[in-house]
Amino acid sequence: MTRPIPPTTSDDPPVDQANVRRAAFAGLVGTALEQYDFVIYGTAAAIIFNTLFFPEVSPAVGVIASLGAYAVGFAARPLGGLFFARFGDRLGRKWVLVATLFLMGIATFAIGLLPSYHQVGILAPILLVACRFLQGFGAGAEQAGGVTLLAETAARAKRGLYSSLVFVGAAVGSVLAALAWILAQRLPEDALMSYGWRLVFFSSAFVTIAAYILRRKLRESPVFQETQKARIGVQDTPVGDVLKNGRPSLVRVFFINMGSNGQSYIYQVFMGSYLVTWLGVEATFIPKILLFGGIGACLAAVVAGRASDLLGRKPVILTVLIFLFLFPIPAFMMIDTKEPFLIGLVVVIGFMMAGYATVGSQGAFYAEMFGSRYRYAGISIAREFSSVFGGGIAPLVSSALITWASGSWWPVAIYMMAMIGLSIVGALLSPETRGRDLRLEEDALTEKRAALVASRD
């Protein structure tokens, strides 16, 4: 049986529905920009950047090199998370969300200005890596900020639903990125290689401006405003505080997110390069299936988030993870048929389940796992450091494994299952958190242990 949601009490912070809707939309659009930036780069890495920035190596090695630059963005994410988390738990969620927005937008626009390898030689990939670093540095606090703000603003009975809207924004960003590449690929080959790909990166400016207009009108969450008194007299920074007192929660969230995030980017990034480089699929097919995957992902995130409100966080999280543990082998067997419908079906299902049913069910759970003093820092550190070992290296490792195995997919399937296996262990060791009071200073694990001790006395 699932634990009933604790009823709202008169002591709960009042819920301003207008502010909830504003926060939801602002979080959605901001995360759309983050995902748009990452997907347009990931798609470019799979189909074009190996030629533009790494032309002196074989196509397979060029893909590995461009995905290596892609991984730099993930390596920068925990650094950005550490940097901005100290401000998010002290100055507020809104301040960080505006700062990271502009950092991501400027870095993405700058990629469109870069010269190619044929123009400036080795300087071109160096500049590409620098821009990817700035992208990742800004993205390191984006989703943590959106999830924290929405979880603290929404009513506890709908916390999972509203937190999932942050990831609906990510799905929308994927759809927009796919559409941008579909339009760019309609250009003649020479035009695409000279200026068409640049227009894709320039287009991020429109999303940046739209997100800023929404975010500048945001108000801080009532939970943040109320619990700032808890930090009075606390000498540790939020980062130091969570590292000292929140390590058990950090470890569990780290492993849950690592496998989910790793599989997500295998479907979103690696599959494109695998299909083009090893199976000879037309590059124009990749953005089209990502488009359908992004549309389905919007639904997957919302359904998973709402299901976690109704059934509990833990049962929904485990159901999604177990599916992902079982799916890789039949997925590659379907891809091996080279039937476009089956290939598209695998990528769309992977996109929906690994990319968005995971985070849709986990968003509110992450906010509920940490205490009020360092919630932003806890989510940022756990998610972003795990993303380095998950999505950051998963496309690169998968490309290296497939090259080592001369095109055989078995090593990649085993790698995917191993990652999700760690996530399942992390979920099994975690408490049910649905409906938890987010004003509490202690973590969910500390609260659970205290309740067990009290029940024995």
From TrEMBL:
The cross-references to SUPFAM superfamilies, in alphabetical order and at most eight, read:
MFS general substrate transporter
| Compartments (UniProt record) | Cell membrane
Question: What name goes with this protein?
Answer: MFS transporter
Q: Which UniProt keywords apply?
A: Cell membrane, Membrane, Transmembrane, Transmembrane helix, Transport
Native organism: Georgenia ruanii
User: Which InterPro entries does the record match to this protein?
Assistant: MFS, MFS_dom, MFS_trans_sf, Sugar_transporter_CS
**GO cellular component: a single term:** plasma membrane
According to the record, the segments passing through the membrane are 38-54, 60-83, 95-114, 120-140, 161-183, 195-214, 285-304, 316-335, 341-367, 388-406, 412-430
- GO molecular function, a single term: transmembrane transporter activity
Where is it mainly found? Answer: membrane
- What's its membrane topology? Multi-pass membrane protein
The UniProt record lists the Major facilitator superfamily (MFS) profile domain at: 23-434
Q: Which Gene3D superfamilies match?
A: MFS general substrate transporter like domains
